Amino acid sequence: MTAPADLAAATVRWTAVCTLDDLAPERGAAALVDSEQVALVRLLDDRVLAVQQLDPFSGAHVMSRGIVGSRSIDGADVPTLTSPMYKQVFDLQTGRCLDGAGKAPLDLRTWQVVVTDGVVHVGGAR
Ligand code: FES
User: Fold this and answer.
1) DSSP string across 1-44
2) Is the C-beta atom of 123 inside 6 A of ligand 1?
3) What's the pLDDT at 5?
4) Ligand 1 centroid to 39 CA: how many Å?
5) CA quadruple 105, 54, 67, 125: dihedral sign
6) I need a surface site. Which of 1, 54, 55, 124 has the fewest CB within 10 A?
7) How much of the chain, in percent, has pLDDT values that exceed 90?
8) From ligand 1's centre to the CA of 79, what distance in Å?
């Protein structure tokens, strides 16, 4: 985990959005960061990942209501988020569209997240 000193040293602007306890494992939650809607997902290992709340395929802000899962890619387990609308599957770590469900892939933006003293901070978009 990243220490508070690292937060201060970074040029990224961090926004405290909630506590880790506010997030249920493997369930998404929506947060507003610099007036942009972000979908937060807490994994079973307490890592928190953030992608855009906007579903690029449907145009609806619904990604926090997506289905959290995982896929094996090149032998590694990759956490995924499946859109609740048309079931496109995204890599939660990179935002990459893994399955366009018949459409040309569109990726999600991702944000840096650190959890410090039980508080979830979202940083700049990657
Ligand atoms: S460093 Fe921001 S709330 Fe702890």
Assistant:
1) ---HHHHHHSSSPPEEEEEGGGSPTT-EEEEEETTEEEEEEE-T
2) no
3) 53
4) 20
5) positive
6) 1
7) 87
8) 26
